[in-house]
Design a protein that fits this description.
Chain B: GO terms for molecular function: iron-sulfur cluster binding; metal ion binding. Chain B: Keywords: Iron, Iron-sulfur, Metal-binding. Chain B: This is Adenylylsulfate reductase subunit B. Chain B: It holds the Pfam family Fer4_10. The structure holds 2 protein chains of 2 kinds. By secondary structure, chain A is α/β, with parallel strands linked by helices. Helix content of chain A is 36%, strand content 18%. Chain A contains 16 helices and 20 strands. Chain B has a single domain, classed as Alpha-Beta Plaits (2-Layer Sandwich). Chain B is globular, with a radius of gyration of 15 Å. The chains are: A alpha/beta, B mainly beta. The interface between A and B is large, with 53 and 52 residues. Bound molecules: flavin-adenine dinucleotide (FAD) and iron/sulfur cluster (SF4) (2 copies). One iron/sulfur cluster binds next to helix 1 of chain B.
Chain lengths: 564, 111
């Protein structure tokens, strides 16, 4: 490891992850205070990193005329069985339209009607040609004066005297170790895919909905540093087109597809609710009862609409266009089969993540969380993630005032250096890929993956807990042959830390609050009397113990910015 | 999902250390080999985001569906013209469907 160069950097505000939340945070901080030094570090290149790499087809969180922030909150609550952080959802809703206008100002094409209004896709959604959203954001960041360091994977926070003072990272291209000191840190690393066995095998295994390169690093770093996490048990499982795992909203909303079962019957009305988890639940039930497969029926489309539908998919999920071509059909010749994906941990769709206050401050001083990595506020999508970045960034500007850098001990630096690079020294050892598959198999079989119809019970979860402990041990005996594989190994290490916290959360909530996402076979009913509260956790690294903390629901009236 | 890189078209983006496709892959999956040709480390790691397909100035990269999920040989290629992107979907019978999509506003004075 003597050929590894140590690079020391200093910045006022460090943003980890230049996705939707990180880019907007950076640009808004610089707009507010051009003198502040801001550094975005990303494991990829921010031109095409994270969830937005392929593009998107709609701004899914926008308040169309007549919709208020309170309406947005009411909708999110209804869709999430009432239990969300009202204060977080509300403060995020207040900034959605401003964030949307910034995207347009930066050059994102919005579809407009004759009088120049955005074309609504639904009450809270507008249509765009979003293929280029990520390069457009990256350019805006560059022009704002934010510094960017691409291809550096952040591995842990620098914590001194219970405050976050920066972060450690390593280059995924060169032999370099980074020690980045900062007065405040914003974590915006997105959520976690790859914890469960994916839908597809072999060379299609990364054909998944969430980005396979968002591997829960932000959660894992927070867990290791002892930050409080919330609601990991509310996993997110998406209802998507089968095999190609493409989004379905465009079919259902923009092209008015009917959701039908194998008998051609619209089945959703037969179920209690029409919320996001219930649409998935209903589809699974139809399959279970022998009325599958289920489809989104687009056979009513005109030939001209076929082409438009494919265009919409090219803007965000090109795979399905190939599927039609390989099937030698046009979209209107056959309904599109739909199915559930593997579970993801993603605070922007469900609400797993850092426990933050309304300023997006985590429970560790100097550390903020925004976007998919932040908890308590489901359905934030691109614009919601952006707003959280903005809120965090503007508060961080206040926080850094009068603060200075501290001296770091060699001991602290050497410890992380060894943790990061020692796998490169090993001649023999497990390969990251093998341990990744073991993690996915354990989670699939014992912690409610696709193969068990997402259902959970205590006996199996306890098996998962045991297996994960052993896996964590085995990870200390894994090797990496180059820095790319080293990144892969740290991705597995991070995912195992996330999975262990997830399993404790799943064990703790003894009710079924969110169908499919958190469905306990042994506690099949929703129990508002005992469980209308948040399940939070904190990890103690010395003892290797995960402590569970219960937190009361926070109502909108409590909107005073204080940490509950 | 995966991409294939046409050896005859790829020129490694010249002598630069980091070619354009390498720069953008969100998974760090592309590299240049000794022959100055772009290669994918492991096609099983590809997400099918098509970032590399759109970035290549020589249209050397095509995307296809893996056989595991029904891929049978059709391909997608793209060319970025600055304010619009043109996709070419090559079907099994050899025919090509073209899509012309505005992806950027070059001037935006109404805001
Ligand atoms: C396929 C797909 C389609 C979507 N379509 C839509 C849509 O049409 N409309 C809509 O409104 N929303 C859509 N969303 C949701 C939206 O993309 C996300 O909510 C949003 O991107 C979240 O922003 P983020 O900043 O939290 O995460 P991301 O945008 O994913 O950014 C996370 C960043 O962190 C970086 N990173 C991760 N780990 C590390 C590390 N260890 N070190 C350094 N950097 C790291 C990543 O490379 C990435 O750049 C879609 C999401 C997906 C996955
Ligand atoms: S961008 Fe195109 S030409 Fe350049 S290295 Fe990649 S495949 Fe080759
Ligand atoms: S399609 Fe995306 S993930 Fe696959 S090689 Fe190209 S840039 Fe990388």
């Amino acid at each position: 490891m003597n050929n590894i160069e140590i690079v020391n950097l200093k910045t006022d505000i460090l943003i980890i992850g230049g996705g939707a939340a990180g880019c907007y945070a950076g640009a808004r901080i610089k707009e507010e205070d051009p003198k502040a030094d801001v550094l975005i570090v990303d494991k990829a290149h921010i031109k095409r990193s994270g969830c937005l790499a392929a593009g998107i087809s709609a701004i899914n969180a926008y308040l169309n005329p007549g919709v208020t922030p309170k309406d947005f909150l009411d909708y999110v609550k209804k869709d999430s069985e009432g239990l969300v952080r009202d204060d977080l959802v509300y403060t995020l809703a207040q900034g959605l339209n401003k964030a949307t206008h910034w995207l347009e100002k930066w050059g994102l094409p919005f579809l407009k009607d004759e009088v120049g209004n955005y074309v609504a896709k639904g009450k809270r959604s507008v249509k765009i040609n979003g293929e280029h959203i990520k390069p457009i954001m990256a350019k805006a960041v560059e022009e704002s004066g934010v510094e960017v360091l691409n291809r550096v994977n952040i591995s842990n926070y620098i914590v001194v005297d219970d405050q976050v003072r920066g972060a450690f990272g390593f280059s995924v291209r060169e032999n370099k170790f980074y020690v980045i000191q900062a007065k405040a840190v914003i974590c915006a690393t997105g959520g976690a895919a790859g914890i469960y066995k994916p839908n597809n095998p072999g060379s299609a295994r990364h054909k998944m909905w969430y980005s396979p390169f968002n591997t829960g690093a932000g959660y894992a770093m927070g867990i290791r540093a002892g930050a409080e996490m919330t609601t990991f048990e509310m996993r997110f499982i998406a209802l998507r087109t089968k095999d190609t795992i493409s989004p379905t909203g465009v079919l259902a909303q923009s092209f008015k597809a009917k959701q039908v079962n194998g008998e051609g019957i619209e089945y959703q009305e037969e179920y209690k609710k029409n919320s996001t988890p219930y649409r998935l639940h209903a589809t699974l039930e139809e399959n279970k009862e022998g009325r599958g497969p289920c489809y989104l029926d687009v056979t009513h489309l005109s030939d001209e609409s076929n082409h438009r539908l494919k265009r919409a998919y090219l803007n965000m999920s090109p795979g399905i266009v190939l599927k039609w071509a390989d099937g030698e059909i046009e979209p209107n010749q056959s309904p599109v089969e739909i199915y559930g994906t593997e579970p993801y941990i993603v605070g922007g769709h469900s609400q797993s993540g850092y426990w933050v206050d309304s300023k997006r401050r985590s429970t560790i001083a100097g550390l903020y969380a925004a976007g998919d990595v932040a908890g308590g506020a489901p359905k934030k999508y691109v614009t919601g993630a952006m707003v959280e970045g903005e809120i965090a960034g503007l508060d961080a500007l206040d926080y850094i005032r009068g603060r200075d850098f501290v001296d770091l001990s060699n001991n602290l630096i050497n410890k992380e250096f060894d943790r990061v690079f020692s796998p490169l020294e090993k001649e023999e050892g497990f390969l990251p890929e093998d341990l990744e598959e073991r993690l996915q198999k354990v989670m699939d079989e014992y912690a409610g993956g696709i193969s068990t119809n997402y259902r959970l019970d205590e006996g199996k979860l306890i098996m998962a807990r045991k297996e994960l402990r052993r896996l964590k041990e085995d990870l200390t005996r894994a090797k990496a042959e180059d820095v790319h594989q080293l990144m892969n190994l740290h991705e597995v290490i991070d995912r195992v830390d996330v999975a262990r916290v997830l399993v404790e959360h799943l064990l703790y909530r003894k009710e079924t609050r969110w169908r499919c996402y958190q469905e306990r076979v042994d506690y099949p009913k929703k129990d508002d009397e005992n469980w209308f509260k948040f399940v939070n956790s904190k990890y103690n690294q010395e003892l290797d113990q995960i402590e569970i903390i219960e937190r009361e629901h926070i109502r909108l009236g409590d909107l005073d910015g204080s940490q509950n | 999902m995966a991409v294939k890189i046409d050896k005859n078209l790829c020129n490694g983006c010249g002598s630069c250390k980091e070619s354009r496709c390498m720069a953008v892959c969100p998974g760090n999956l592309l590299y240049k080999n000794e022959d100055n040709q772009a290669k994918i480390r492991d096609k099983r790691e590809c997400w099918d985001c098509a970032a590399c397909v759109k970035e290549c100035p020589r249209q050397a990269i095509a995307m296809y569906l893996p056989a595991e999920v029904g891929g049978r040989g059709s391909t997608l290629q793209a060319q970025d013209f600055g304010d619009k992107i043109v996709w070419k979907l090559k079907k099994l019978d050899g025919s090509i469907e073209e899509f012309n999509i505005q992806n950027k506003l070059l001037f935006n004075s109404n805001l």
